[in-house]
Prior knowledge:
- This protein has about 220 residues and is an alpha/beta fold.
- Helix content is about 50%, strand content about 15%.
- The protein has helices at about 15-25, 35-50, 55-65, 95-105, 105-120, 135, 150-165, 170-185, 210-224, and strands spanning about 5-10, 30-35, 65-70, 80, 85, 125-130, 145-150, 200-205.
- The strands form two sheets. Strands 2-6-1-7-8 form a five-stranded parallel β-sheet.
- Helix 2 packs across helix 4.
- The longest helix has 17 residues, at about 170-185.
- The protein starts with a strand and ends with a helix.
- The model has no long low-confidence stretch (mean pLDDT about 95).
- The structure holds cytidine-5'-monophosphate (C5P).
- Cytidine-5'-monophosphate (C5P) binds near residues 38 and 185.
Amino acid sequence: xxxxxxxxxxxxxxGKSTVTRRVAKALNLVYLDTGAMYRAIAWLVSKSGVSxxxxxxxxxxxxxxxxxxxxxxxxxPLRISINGEDVSEAIRTPEVxxxxxxxxxxxxxxxxxxxxxxxxGKKGGLVAEGRDIGTNVFPDAELKIFLTASVQERAKRRWxxxxxxxxxxxxxxxxxxxxxxxxxxxxxxxxxxxxxxxxIEINTDGLTIEEVTDKIIYFYQKII
Length: 224
Ligand code: C5P
């Protein structure tokens, strides 16, 4: 039998990454960052110079792409490489972020990554974070969480992150980017972002990272 799976979905900037990392550590589960995988494909498409409209060429690229994903561990951050190239940092640039939701809407891209994620999840014992984990990748996950927050709150968090990195994006730009990505992610035809019927919604406005993490751990312990 497989170990339990926690699915954490929600829009951009709702705090999924930070919270998922903490939940994984506290419960000794593997952390699966599926957004990083879509970002790696977006990076590859952008590097290859293939047009976004050329679905055939993108499908070709994706089918032959070799992904290597090693989840973060105590003391070591997540590493992801594609076709042998380590892109762990490169996938976080504003250019990749601006491109990714158009790449992730393409059928060949989703087919490849969903089956890759399902393979990684065969034995269970993981907490996976994304947009379609509870609805599509692991529909039988033991616990499903849908993390939300107002656009203002999410943009503010991103802004604070970028301040640390010395990036010059304004709050208004970040709000627009987030809204546009949410719109694309929730209006695409394939596995759009939406809350699974059996997911527990947590609105993180005004909650600390610790409070959100503790809530998820509490729900997990109730069902396990
Ligand atoms: O979570 P993150 O911001 O890294 O995700 C980047 C993008 O990858 C999302 O905006 C979405 O377009 C795509 N994505 C997806 N399905 C997932 C995870 C991410 O379509 N399960």
